[in-house]
Amino acid sequence: METLSFSPEWNAACLRVEDYLRANGISSRTQLLSLTLDIVSQAQQMHLGDASLSPVETAMRLATTRTENWFAKLVGDGSATDAPSRGRVAYFAARCGHRWPSAFLSSTPPEAMLAAIRSASIQAGPALEFRSLIRKEIDYGPMEDIARETWDQFSWSHVLRAFLIWVVVFFVAYGAWLRFFK
Question: What does pTM read for this prediction?
Fold first, then answer.
């Protein structure tokens, strides 16, 4: 029998499965390693029978299938297509990963966890509707009229006159400094 456990492809598969399980809320390092090695060793056996997929794809398909089946089993309605999604949402809503950290992917989850999951209220949001956005003019009220009148009265001659006054003030001050302090 061919040994696959030390190849770089299986190391990558192991890391990928570990990340996937960590994303599902497993915080215990021991449990994370145990589940990862269990899934990867099972994926290696599957890969020996059918090598059409890469080791990473084989391991991730197995991990995804196991977690989706487990989440569907938690809500008790494995026939519905959205059962894995509802199970995952209920699992996180009931904070089961924190309350029962060793129960993830177990064949017999604790009854208290099942009761917490089934009591979690899950309600979908409204259906998504696509609409075209129509541009509406913003009414600024009296501020718009004041700003428009100010802009209409604006003249560069006022700016130029103020600039020239400041230039004259600067040179008068500079001349006074040269005369009295130099």
Answer: 0.61
